[in-house]
Amino acid sequence: MSAPLGLEVRARAIRAARGLEPFDLLLTGGTVADVATGELRAADVGIVGGMIASLHPPGTRSDAAEVHDVAGCVLAPGFVDNHLHFESSFMAPADYASVVVPQGVTTTVWDPHELANVLGVPGVRWAVEAARGLPLRVLVAAPSCVPSAPGLELAGAEIGPAEMAEMLSWPEVAGVAEVMDMQGVLNGRPVMTGIVGAGMASGKNVNGHGRDLAGGDLQGYVAAGVTSDHEITSGEDLLAKLRAGLTVELRGSHDYVLPGAVAAINALPLFPATLVVCTDDIFPDELVAKGGLRDTLARLVRHGLDPMKALRMATLNSALRLKRDDIGLLAPGRAAEIVVLSDLPGFVVERVYVGGRLVARDGALLEPLPRDLSDAPRDTVKLPIQPVEAFRLRVKGIDNGNARLPVVGGARVVHWAEATVAVRDGVAELPAGHALIAILHRHGRRDPGPMVCLADGWGEPEGAIATTIAHDNHNLLVIGRDPTDMAAAANALIACGGGMAVAAGGEVTALMPLPIAGLLAETPPAETAAAFARVRAAADAVMQWQPPYRIFRGITGISLACNPGPHPTDLGISDGGTGALVDPAVPLAA
Q: What is the mean pLDDT of the chain?
């Protein structure tokens, strides 16, 4: 990122705006998208250093060291992605920047809670250091829920109020990351009260994760000090969160929610200033192919949102949310972060300026970014190779007969279920339509023996998928029916230090190593995207997908213990809504 705009640059900008000295750069012939007024108006833009000095009538100035003709294009402020996890794209910051900056993103709010759940505060510090010196402003949100559901899972570290206060003192940290332990907040759990309190005391944002909160629970969550939410499930949910005073971060990762959300927005008498946009989680092949936030904005327009309103969500509204008056608007005194669009409704990006310099054109950076990953954290999968027997569901207390066992029902939308199974030599025989999910603790903090449970939301896998990206404890998760396939996929990840693997017929059919914390790749973005595409294709061959819930992305989120309903963790089947923790191998009482 360019250096902060200093007094010398500002003094030069004042003189240039008054015609007393030339601009460093002049953009001529374009149409400015004024997100403050909603206008599209012809104007030339004069830049000094990294600052916009003047917007003035076309053709009235020509005195500049350099002139760029942008005729026929719309000039917009740099896009702000208000909430995301680089880890979901398996990319270190430099690689992520190399993909999104050419697509118009100049500011991100990165919640590295995946890294934090593996490594704790040192993981967040590495995230901050790795994001320096990029043509992308990376604001870090300090992970608030490590683990996301205390007592229901065991992650690689723990973060409390003292650690939160330390991280909030870092200038790169913009606030408290999504507060996922909803019950901890509502029940006044001291750790969560202290974490939210530290955020409020810092004057920085306290970001939320209010999945399925409504009524008094929603009101109480907001009263606790949380000020945003991205866990939107419908248009009605969006309106309820806005009416509660939250800034809604409408995310692109759940496209099936967007039509209802747009309809709700369009029905409002006033466009909310508390409505912004984010990507949250994007897999690498989608990011490389579609461009991340740019694609989200284009989809919002296709679903019926006015392009200028979509743009405002990603610019001025975002700046207001971040309490920043240096970004989010093309105006004198603001940072010269400018996106040149050849098509506004389609959000087609032709050029990107950062720090007053042209840094990207036609979807590519003009200069490559350095990729030094020598200090990246590795060797975080602390597991021995597992025998096939580890992936059988051994029923406790019954050698032969029948047993009624708890079941994780559903995929993204889960419910408690049960099934009666035959037990032979202490091992449950899988009923039709069911799968096994195994969670192995990989952080070296407890016995790593797999916690194996029944699931009936995933059909009958004809192989197995293993991943060390398993929100948010990021233990090793394996889903399948055949223990031989499950062992093959799991052991491939144990051997390579983490990642994703697919196995069928007892053999690994696709492997994507993610050696950095078991979360990030060492390969450049195009190679990462291609490797993941191979894993996705192999998974398609063994799974019976049923969108919008039974999808590949759902596997990485099935262990999200803070959410209501049954979720498998290394401690059992947990329920973030009730705090229940059930042993999946103990028969249910009659």
A: 96
